[in-house]
Amino acid sequence: MTTPNDLLLQVLAGKETPRPPVWLMRQAGRILPEYRAVRSRLSGFKELVETPELACEVTIQPVDLLGVDAAILFSDILVIPEAMGLPYQLIEKVGPRFEETISCKADLDRLHPVEPEEHLRYVMDAMRMTRAELDGRVPLIGFAGAPWTIFCYMVEGGGSKEWSKARRMLRSEPVLAEELLDRITEATILYLNAQVAAGAQVLQLFDSWAGALSAELFERYSMPRLKRICEEVKGAPLIVFAKGASWQLDRLAQLPCAALGIDWHTPISEARKRAPRHVLQGNLDPSVLYGTEAEVRAATQRMLSDFGRGGHVANLGHGVYPDINPDRVRDFIDEVKRSGH
Ligand code: CP3
């Protein structure tokens, strides 16, 4: 029997540990040939997301093959808009696409509230199955997109560099925008609480496009909803990762969450100064992993010493890139683990 590893839970509870726990955003899928082998037998990404046995298998792959200290459920943030009534497709080499988008009140009125055990049953089943299968080896992380990030996809209909349609709606239709953001917030609270009931031990909120908002827009449209989610989601520590919003870190530090994710643009000393009471997660630049083993190890050491002892979850400053060599990911993980010796 392997010893249960609850380093992540301990650090998020504010306890001292011999070393920081380590996991990677987007560790499930993308970089592992073993993931691609499972994926290639299927009709597509959604079949994998919607088949609990397979989602469970690829969630556990990085625990076995990379040695991370946590598993993050294999799913996607886009299951929420779909559960609200906007189906998406993932188009190879293009990305997510929504056939219908939200541009007026009539579109909004076609959306419906989310019942997680009904509309997202496959996520809940995958969570229960994975928690049982992990058997305490490492904690299981659940997640959702933050309201602003989900709003971006529902208004634009796919990825974007500028998110100009989404930002235009904030300016030209503030009432409609607020209503859509509130509906997403309600669905997200139900969804995250249902994930906890199904076995998630830690939760992460991905605000991947927070960096598209000005301080004024962030304050009005994003902050109150992040705060509401922090207050209404119970039973598991929450990590809030607002990418590109590190200049808002003093505002984010007002959130009642267990930890804040730090992107790779943010100097660590600055983050510690501006969010002194929070556990911080991050923040190695993922492109460091394109370097040599020695470079990866040296950069990891620098990151660890900049964060200092305690209150740190080692991670990248955004998701791992699909063409990164898994051996360099192993070097990163190994270097963090060696820091406890
Ligand atoms: O972290 C993990 O390993 C768990 C699984 C996970 C996926 N997506 C699987 C996935 C998580 C946590 C996400 C979150 C997600 N999805 C975010 C927030 C994180 C971030 O990177 O900022 C966003 C913005 C999305 C939306 C999304 N899903 C995009 C833009 C794409 C296409 C590009 C890509 O590969 O990321 C997806 C598809 C997707 N989600 C894949 C995976 C493994 C690729 C599917 C495949 O081709 O097999």
Question: Could you walk me through the main structural features you see in this protein, from its secondary elements to its overall organization?
Answer:
This protein has 341 residues and is an alpha/beta fold. The protein has a single domain, classed as Alpha-Beta Barrel (TIM Barrel). Helix content is 48%, strand content 12%. The strands form 2 sheets. It has a 7-stranded parallel beta sheet with strand order 1-4-5-6-7-8-9. It has a two-stranded antiparallel ribbon with strand order 2-3. Strand 5, helix 12 and strand 6 form a beta-alpha-beta unit. Helix 9 packs across helix 10 and helix 10 crosses helix 11. The longest helix has 24 residues. The two termini are 22 Å apart. The mean pLDDT is 96. The structure holds coproporphyrinogen III. The site of coproporphyrinogen III (CP3) has 22 residues, from strand 3.
